[in-house]
């Protein structure tokens, strides 16, 4: 976005906004997107307060040394409690070991649906200008020294175009990049490439440009074997940018060809070869996924969690693929002769009437109650439990709480 508006008569600044999912199942996306930015807007619901995904994204941000701006959103909800939520966010920062500078975070109160943001709750409802002004004030702009240095960029996402092929979405860390420029791709080894097309982003649309400079988010075409986390550089002796660490998968399941009597009735892509090609294509853009193709009868797919794999399956179904899926299994690993399994923090909001049944069921699934809070007849339960205990629990939870 550009702010202030071009017709305001003031100097216009381009603000690159990159959205990221908050769910831990998409930690691979969170990790690489956080590496491409200079500041975080931490969105917190004014009624619900910090959720597990809030804690997850904030923890990653603080580890990378980013200084968040807290946006308490949905203050127009009838049950909103923005000042109480602000205190909860402060406690969360303390729990995550933030530095003194990170703890001194600015707060904006907003109602995004109405397009309103303000510094104080008593301020007049106008527009989002207070938020954009705060971004200009707090987020560092790119330095002139970075612009004159040799070009260096790092892909944090991949895209596919029917005409351009595989494209890399990058943050330009230094220098200037031009369309038609020869570059070096550094990742342990060094290989060459040529930028055939260059795009920047305006709103939700992409715009072809002849060149771009440090601080921009760009899409580069012309390097067909580019991978996330590699360094695209102007010179072959430039140091590689720090690699992007991806969290390991926690569950696995097998994808098989549908061999039931009703095979072929719900999809048009049903053969093992078609499924294999589609899964290989998914690996190009979904770096949190790991797939073993060594067995010819099934493909072992490992993901970050139930939601991660469920979204992949739904995408396959919508695209016309038909397949069988095995029961999910938790990935157990060994370190120093000991078996380790993934654990999760589970937050449940429910009516007080059902908390006894839920606590009993989760305790049987090896869950430990860490915290219990009540507010306006609602109870928030926070558990720590193994991932294997969570698998298949959702349906039981809906029955126990009667769908409320």
In words, what does this structure look like?
With 404 residues, the protein is an alpha+beta fold. The protein folds into four domains: 39-138, P-loop containing nucleotide triphosphate hydrolases (Rossmann fold, 3-Layer(aba) Sandwich); 144-233, Translation factors (Elongation Factor Tu (Ef-tu), domain 3), CATH 2.40.30; 251-331, Elongation Factor G (Translational Gtpase), domain 3 (Alpha-Beta Plaits); 342-400, Alpha-Beta Plaits, CATH 3.30.70.240. 25% of the residues lie in helices and 32% in strands. It is built from eleven helices and 26 strands. The protein has helices at residues 27-34, 52-63, 82-95, 100-103, 129-138, 144-148, 272-285, 306-318, 355-364, 387-390, 393-400; strands at residues 2-3, 13-14, 41-45, 69-73, 107-111, 116-118, 152-161, 165-174, 176-178, 182-187, 189-194, 197-202, 205-208, 211-213, 217-221, 231-233, 251-256, 290-292, 298-303, 324-325, 329-330, 333-335, 338-340, 343-351, 368-375, 378-386. The strands form seven sheets. Strands 11-10-16-7-8-15-12-13 form an eight-stranded antiparallel sheet. Strands 17, 18, 19, 20 and 21 form a five-stranded antiparallel sheet that branches. It has a four-stranded mixed sheet with strand order 3-4-5-6, with helices on both faces. A hairpin with a 2-residue loop joins strand 25 and strand 26 (378-386). The chain is globular and about 65 Å long. The two termini are 40 Å apart.
Overall CATH architecture of the largest domain: 3-Layer(aba) Sandwich
What average pLDDT do the residues reach? Answer: 85
CATH H-level superfamily of the largest domain: P-loop containing nucleotide triphosphate hydrolases
Radius of gyration: 24 Å
Strand content: 25-35%
Q: CATH topology of the largest domain, what is it called?
A: Rossmann fold
Keywords: GTP-binding, Nucleotide-binding
GO molecular function: GTP binding; GTPase activity
Organism: candidate division WWE3 bacterium CG_4_10_14_0_2_um_filter_41_14
Pfam families: EFG_C, GTP_EFTU, GTP_EFTU_D2
């Amino acid at each position: 976005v550009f702010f202030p508006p071009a017709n305001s008569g003031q100097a216009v600044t381009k603000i690159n906004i990159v959205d990221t999912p908050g769910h831990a199942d998409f930690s691979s996306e969170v990790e690489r997107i956080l590496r491409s930015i200079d500041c975080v807007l931490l969105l917190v619901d004014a009624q619900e307060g910090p959720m597990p995904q809030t804690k997850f994204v904030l923890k990653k941000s603080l580890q990378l040394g980013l200084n968040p701006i807290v946006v308490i959103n949905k203050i127009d909800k009838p049950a909103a409690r923005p000042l109480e939520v602000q205190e909860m966010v402060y406690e969360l920062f303390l729990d995550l070991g933030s530095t003194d500078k990170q703890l001194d975070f600015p707060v904006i109160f907003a109602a995004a649906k109405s397009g309103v943001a303000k510094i104080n709750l008593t301020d007049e409802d106008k527009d989002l200008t207070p938020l954009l002004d705060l971004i200009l004030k707090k987020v560092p702009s790119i330095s002139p020294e970075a612009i004159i240095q040799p070009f260096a960029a790092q892909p944090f996402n991949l895209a596919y175009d029917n005409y351009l092929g595989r494209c890399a979405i990058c943050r330009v860390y230094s220098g200037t990049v031009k369309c038609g420029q020869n570059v070096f791709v550094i990742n342990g080894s060094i290989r060459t490439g040529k930028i055939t097309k260059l795009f920047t982003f305006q709103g939700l649309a992409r715009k072809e440009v002849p060149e771009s400079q440090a601080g921009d988010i760009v899409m580069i075409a012309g390097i067909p074997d580019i991978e996330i986390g590699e360094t695209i550089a102007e010179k072959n002796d430039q140091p590689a940018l720090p690699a992007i660490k991806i969290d390991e998968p926690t569950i696995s399941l097998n994808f098989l060809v549908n061999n039931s009597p009703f095979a072929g009735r719900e999809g048009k892509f049903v053969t093992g070869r078609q499924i294999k090609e589609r899964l290989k294509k998914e690996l190009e853009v979904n770096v949190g996924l790991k797939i073993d193709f060594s067995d010819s009868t099934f493909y072992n797919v490992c993901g970050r969690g139930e939601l991660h794999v469920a979204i992949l399956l739904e995408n396959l179904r919508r695209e016309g693929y038909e397949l069988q899926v095995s029961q999910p299994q938790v990935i157990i690993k060994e370190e120093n002769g000991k078996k380790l399994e993934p654990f999760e923090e589970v937050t449940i909001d429910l009516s007080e009437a059902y908390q006894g049944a839920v606590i009993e069921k989760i305790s049987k699934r090896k869950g430990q109650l860490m915290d219990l809070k009540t507010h306006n007849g609602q109870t928030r339960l926070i558990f720590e439990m193994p991932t294997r205990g969570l698998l298949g629990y959702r349906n039981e939870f809906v029955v126990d709480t009667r769908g409320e």
